[in-house]
């Protein structure tokens, strides 16, 4: 990588009286622009904002506006605060994460209404509605921090209502980054439609996620006709829906025709009909080498009204679901098998090497299960003090799993 000398920054007063950090003019008068492609320039800022030159900043702000350019620069700097987390102490580790996330919240102009409710630790009042399980080990605390809970009935991991992922929205870039950032070899099926003055995307995923086989349904939207600077670098960027826009949904994941697990947004411990924005399920220690041909999802989604149901069905047809879609009132049912959407080039390019890594994660997990004589996938059964009494192989397997879940958090903000 070419080494560049970062230009010095100075504080300049904005017209409103506040101070902003922008690149200072370099002493040399020759052109100091690495690229004239705005999308590539934005990516360079996200990778290393301190290397931005004055000429690059001026080119950027002339294209997207001063406020957007400053916001992009500020956001990029705050995101970099989540790199290289090494601590084993969950408290100090979470403290390191929480500070930059608080800053990231403030830098996002439009985020969901419950942003203040996002927590990295288990919340008995909120999370306790969905499971009787409580985290009692370091690994289980990491799982909760990564945005998930454990279901002892089906022996699976599933996403919380208010994980950190909810401030991140979604864009095509995330799917492209998934193989290397998340060790995920997955089928992706985004469904786009317009309803009530907003552009909506309901995306489906299924496949191998590191040490687990799983599936997801995510719901996102953005104001119709919105111009978002993130579109340039990441593809159309959608926000996670607000609490008022949650939908009732369910799915059953099958592997080679056999049910792995079922998920629904209802709170099973009560009579309440709950809704969700990100319905997921993941089976630890389960390896799926060919998600496209081995996995299918039977899906049911209840839309807000008839107009939304019609718009969603039209979106399904536009993707390629010409048959196999049924509905009753506002509830739509269909099967996600082989995706109709074009899959990312990054998946094909990295699939073989990533799946080798995923097998390694599963081998590490099975080593721990055998040593600890675990009867289920409950992360509470993997206690750090018991692992330390094991062989070097056992300790290495444990470290491998801890680092995997930490990477979920750090990669999400890079």
The number of strands is: 14
Uncertain spans, ≥5 residues at pLDDT below 50? 1-22, 24-30, 82-90, 100-117
Span between termini = 19 Å
- From the structure provided, what is the oligomeric state, counting identical versus distinct chains? single chain
Mean pLDDT: 80
Structural class: alpha+beta
Q: What sequence of helices (H) and strands (E) makes up the elements?
A: EEHHHHHHEEHEEEHEEEEHEHEEHHH
Total of DSSP H or I helical runs spanning 4+ residues: 13
| Radius of gyration based on Cα positions | 23 Å
Helical content stands at 25-40%
Instruction: Let me know the largest β-sheet.
Output: 5 strands, antiparallel
Shape: globular
Residue fraction in strands = 15-25%
């Amino acid at each position: 990588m070419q080494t560049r000398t970062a230009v010095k920054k100075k504080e300049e007063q904005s017209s409103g009286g506040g101070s902003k950090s922008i690149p200072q003019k370099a002493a040399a008068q020759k052109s100091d622009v690495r690229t004239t492609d705005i999308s590539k320039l934005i990516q360079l800022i996200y990778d290393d904002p301190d290397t931005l030159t004055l000429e690059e900043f001026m080119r950027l702000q002339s294209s997207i506006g001063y406020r957007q350019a400053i916001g992009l620069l500020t956001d990029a700097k705050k995101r970099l605060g989540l790199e290289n987390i090494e601590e084993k102490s969950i408290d100090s580790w979470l403290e390191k994460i929480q500070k930059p996330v608080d800053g990231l919240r403030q830098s996002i102009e439009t985020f969901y209404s419950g942003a203040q409710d996002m927590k990295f630790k288990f919340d008995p009042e909120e999370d306790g509605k969905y499971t009787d399980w409580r985290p009692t080990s370091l690994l289980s605390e990491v799982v909760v921090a990564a945005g998930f809970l454990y279901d002892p009935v089906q022996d699976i991991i599933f996403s919380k209502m208010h994980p950190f992922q909810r401030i991140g929205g979604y864009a095509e870039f995330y799917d492209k980054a998934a193989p290397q950032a998340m060790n995920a070899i997955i089928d992706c099926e985004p469904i786009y439609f317009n309803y009530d003055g907003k552009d909506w995307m309901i995306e489906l995923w299924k496949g191998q996620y590191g040490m687990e086989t799983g599936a997801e349904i995510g719901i996102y939207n953005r104001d119709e006709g919105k111009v978002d600077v993130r579109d340039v670098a990441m593809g159309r960027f959608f926000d996670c829906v607000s609490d008022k826009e949650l939908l009732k949904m369910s799915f059953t994941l099958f592997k080679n025709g056999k049910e792995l697990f079922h998920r629904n947004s209802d709170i099973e411990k009560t009579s309440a009909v709950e809704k969700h924005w990100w319905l997921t399920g993941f089976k630890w220690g389960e390896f799926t080498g060919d998600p496209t041909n081995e996995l299918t999802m039977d899906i049911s989604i209840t839309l807000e009204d008839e107009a939304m149901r019609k718009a969603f069905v039209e979106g399904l047809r536009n993707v390629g679901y010409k048959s196999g879609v049924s509905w009753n009132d506002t509830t739509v049912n269909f099967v996600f098998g082989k995706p109709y959407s074009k899959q990312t080039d990054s998946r094909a390019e990295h699939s073989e090497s990533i799946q080798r890594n995923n097998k390694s994660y599963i081998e590490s997990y099975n080593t721990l299960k055998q040593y600890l004589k675990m009867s289920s996938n409950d992360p509470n059964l993997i206690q750090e003090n018991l692992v330390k009494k094991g062989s070097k192989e056992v300790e290495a397997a444990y470290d491998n799993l801890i680092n995997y879940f930490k990477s979920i958090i750090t990669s999400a903000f890079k």
